[in-house]
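This part of the workshop introduces the protein records we will be handling. An example says more than a description, so a record of this kind follows:
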Amino acid sequence: MFEDIKRNKMKSCFIILLFLAFIAVIVYYICMALDLGKTSIVIAMIFAIISTWGSYYYSDRIVLSLNKARPATREENQKLVNILDSLVVSSGLPATPKLYIVEDSQPNAFATGRNPEHAVICVTTGLLDKLEYYELEGVLAHEMSHIKNYDIRLSAVLTVMVGLVIILSDFFSRAFLWTRFDNDNRNSSGIMVLVSVVLLVLAGFFGKLMKLAISRKREFMADATAVEFTRNPDALISALAKLDADTSKLEQANNSTENMYIVTPFKGKQKKANNWFSTHPSIEDRIEAIKNLK
């Protein structure tokens, strides 16, 4: 476990540095196209540093906003709060994660935050309605495993940073494809249009590549750690089976946050979960791995 935590921290640092460089390059070319001259590199570095800092420290708020999550209350979600309190003791986390709710009929959950001291667990109302007490405990234990293993930092940083890279690349390409250039700048404009298209293509590939940095093995490890917390593998198996069988659509789901959920929110992808670009292993493989722990 300690080796996995160390690897997750190293991957997070690598992604942050790669993101910093990529953003700096995009902004630099935008500034050069606007004829800002020697100040382009300064503007690019300042923007890259500020955006990287903001993406890291506010990644949890951004992810919660994307999913339209609201804070859970002890009055309305007493059962959820009780389960979380007991799991904090068994998991040995240094702080109790904050609880958030997403109003959606699909049973699902995710954890986010930059470290265990600033962690958040978010569940859908469908999860609360469709799972029994110990099944819900198994799901929360799974998410707390991601918190303890520092998977949440990697996932949150990846989600926010890749999203920003794609937005900037899209802006860059549109800015040059829609701009009219005079005859004197025709040659340079052609080069800039080519660069913009290349950056847009690289942004999409960058997103896929970074998703692969989050190994699917983390789900197997989180399942195993959840069983260690609860001592109840059957409850987690039952929960995963219910999540897999449910056909409800998760309205707030998008490609950038798919990797964060306990099961993929796109049911059409569930049947192809073993392909190379999938963010989750198949439920059958996960259940089989849990059974082997008994």
